[in-house]
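pasting input
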Amino acid sequence: MTNPLLKVRGLKIGATIYPPGEKSRDIEIVHGVDFDLAPGKVLGLIGESGAGKSTIGLASMAYGRGGVEITGGSVEVNGRDILHSGLRDVRRLRGAEVTYVSQSAAASFNPAKQIMEQVTEAAIFQNKFSRQDAEARAVELFRKLGLPDPENIGSRYPHQVSGGQLQRCMTALALCPQPDLVVFDEPTTALDVTTQIDVLAAIKEAIRDTGVAALYITHDLAVVAQVSDHIMVLQQGAMVEYGTTDQIINAPKEDYTKALVSVRSITHEEKQPTATPVLQVEGITARYAGTNFDVLKDITVDLHPGQTLAVVGESGSGKSTLARVITGLLPPSAGQITFDGRTLTPDLATRPLEDLRELQMIYQMADTAMNPRQTVGTIIGRPLEFYFGLKGAEKQKRIQELLDEIELGDGFQDRYPAELSGGQKQRVCIARALAAKPKLIICDEVTSALDPLVADGILKLLLNLQKIEDVAYLFITHDLATVRAIADSIAVMYQGNVVRYGPKSEVLSPPFDDYTDLLLSSVPEMKLGWLEEVLEHRKMESAGN
Amino acid sequence: MHPILTLVAQRLALGFLLLFAASILIFVGTAILPGDVAQSILGQSATPEALANLRAELGVDQPAITRYFSWLGGVLQGDLGTALTNGRDIAESLSSRLGNTLFLAFWAALIAVPLAITLGLLAVRYKDRWPDKLISAITLTTISIPEFMIGYLLIFFLSIQLPLLIGGMEFLPDGLRSWLLSNLRFSSVALMNDSMTLIEKIKSITLPIMVLTLVVLAHMMRMTRAAILNVMQSAYIETAELKGLGMLKIIRKHAFPNAIAPIVNVVMLNLAYLVVGVVVVEVVFAYPGMGQYLVDHVSKRDVPVVQACGLIFAAVYIGLNLIADIVSILANPRLRHPK
Amino acid sequence: MRIPLAALIGLFFTGLFFAMAIFAPLIAPYGMAEVVGDVWEPPSDQFLLGTDSIGRDLLSRIIYGGQTTIFIATAATALSFIIGSVLGFFAAVSGGWVDQSISRFVDLIMSIPTLIFALVVLSVMPTTITILIVLMGLLDSTRVYRLARAVAVDITVMDYVEAARLRGEKIGWIIFRETLPNALSPLVAEIGLRFIFAVLFVSTLSFLGLGVQPPQADWGGIVKENKEGINYGISAALYPAYAIAVLCISINLVADWVLNRTTSLKGGRG
């Protein structure tokens, strides 16, 4: 067997935390991790937030972010222990032997310098290439990564190229010094799904062509399955399972891995439309004050009682604006909305209390959706008091019922939002919406800020509550897997238009329009070789045209 | 036209507009607010004739708008009017005093700015360690004492107690003692006249310079520290570290280009503050500058002088803020290289 | 909740100074304007800090002076907070042209240095304590306005405020139950900083002879009365400096503790 490029033994990483108003204390965030990486191989590090995967990735460059410190174990790169060598040696390693691609290229590029200068900086500084060679190499990488105008894009400034392009430039930056190992830290997470697939393909090709080894860090198992040879599953700073990609995806051994693999496998039977819809959106056109283009163009959709309409689209498609129009926050310039047989007034201020009560909303960021100075009891109790005039013991009883419904149980009434986990926060927001006994709840990306398993739990809860309370959901999301899991009907939005609309089974079956096809085929699937299949398929289609 | 020029032109226009509005405000503050300027100038015991004379001289019998525009017209031609108290031309009395004030402010800035930036950098370099804590403790103290009291503390300890202390050090050789006494002399009165050499002038204003430096140092240091920390915590600094670059190179190539604008901003805001600090310091050290001139004439209720001085101080203040604004526009890569 | 040592020290001295101000007549050994000894007598058992430029007991002057200074600063701070925060919240919640016109006017006032503006106004106004309080309160309210508006704007874009609006809550609930509790800690810390500024400012005006008028004692005035003594090595003029420094540092320590790391929202001085 060849000597490993990267050899990690008993790696322990600690951090100092500063809870407000308390003394700072040290905690351990990675509890002894071992792994090897052979030259030219790709290892996927996967786990939910707090699993310590980025921290481990950066440890391979002997770097601790913020107050993070490597407290034990050893990390060897090319046979040298990098944790116990001097700063000078570590600097010679960084940017030469090991390089890094971060999640947010927009923040990781210096706004004041041209892209070319930053891409070639490490290669020149580390004496790997002359300036001329480094620039030629950068142009070659730009071309390989599919960037437009590879000859000249380097003379632009970071803010002059798009997010997806900048992420590819970051990959070029990492590959330019011809390193032995690249650490990819969630490189596609911040991108839209149709952009993600291109960047992912570009990264994969670049890895293959240059023969570089990589640590690929992500929370998305379907993504990592496309690029890695081996996968290590992490949970709360410890390794859960390690194996080949094939074994992890197709034959996981540990329960936690099984849960990660089977995530998004909720099945939901599509319901048939009833006679009268609870919500009818007819010909809605809207624009924001002070702008000169319509964010929504002639939108017409229906939603039936007790059912779910999923509104899908990428950032900028206008899906959240639709929610603002329905709730009355943004009066439309044309069209009308009928809710439960009544025409809704365009402006929130003029709507009767009954309309407000029956139409509730749940937000993406549960953190900012709850007043940090109110207890869970106050947050859930307010709608009860406000709409139904409940007081005292009666109110307490109802609050407890709601907490039971969202599966939180006793002892949560007096807690503050800061004392809850992400999933618990979102559950409290659901309880607050339910407290009003609504006919319709607008869910705006309610699971996108959550880890996959937690998100699954929230979706199951929502489906369950729909059965009990017979409430309709208008479910806004960019995630097609979520749509499959819960929708009865689907509206696909693109640049302010509904490009496809109908019952789930129809919308998700061919023949597709171009955009829906692109969108559907871009969603990573939990199987090996998916990326190649899609790319092959697209190549054939474009050849056929 | 390049969009950045448009922005700068807009800022300049806005600056002039602001100055114009400020001139109205100053005029309104002095000429319209009170019931009777003449009465408050001459006091309750004034004779009706004296009041009438003064009113005519002030032009109070004309409508306020007319008075304002004739005043503004004069100002624009360099005519600031005549002082009520001694009848002398204000522009003439002001010019040498303005020169003295700028002289003092210039030397104070020359010492304070590099010192503050260096100390700010040190505080960042040793963040949360003792140099940082010491610096912030000193800062806390100096911003908690008014300027004039810093002045008297320095006079008390440096120009009164220090010579006594040195004089009392009998273990020192006489030669050294007298050398120290003649060279470590801090004058408690900052004299200034045309026959003095530059060195003599600077020696004469050593204490005022020290006071002004202390006064702006604290704020400038705190703000510099915050500005640099803000830049150093950016993700692109981490990128540079992960390229293996050394600290100095990171600071020079990646931190500095992005920190210039906030630092220039800090400097300009504090220079603007220094201009105000000058007023009090001049009074403490009886320095013949604009600040003392202004305070003198406020007590004498000499409205034309107060208006003229107020306008000049406001113009300097607005001007410095304007420079800060324009520098941040020029240093912003998004504006310099539009899409 | 544990209070850090620095904040405890700050609280202790702040309390001490306010108690001295309130009970000045009970604590001061002599009357405020009572001539009891020779000019500039050194400290003794009879006069703990010595006497001043016309033979009044300096300790009594400083205690009464503290009363005047602290009273004026407190009143001016209260005024600036009432005006500044009401207008600031109002502008943030209203938005649109209301916000624009108030904000531009505040910009204009702030384009002239506070001290210069005060001097201009005082050149034609009588210097009574009421005028001083109103003038300082109005000028300083511009800074409170900016902070209150910034804080309120940050909070009103939060989803929980939108959720309350969607629920149909009245403006009173939104301001007092959703916005205010979250704006409180930066505002409370700002009260401390504004108070310090007011103490420094009124002392400066009195020192220039344009603030509190003799024989009324106040800290800035005591410096003015005794400054000649410094040239003879008499430190009478320096005691008020120590008093101001201790008070201001104490309040700063308390404010820092209240603000607890949200340092970005501090207002300025000058």
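fyi The mean pLDDT of chain A is 88.
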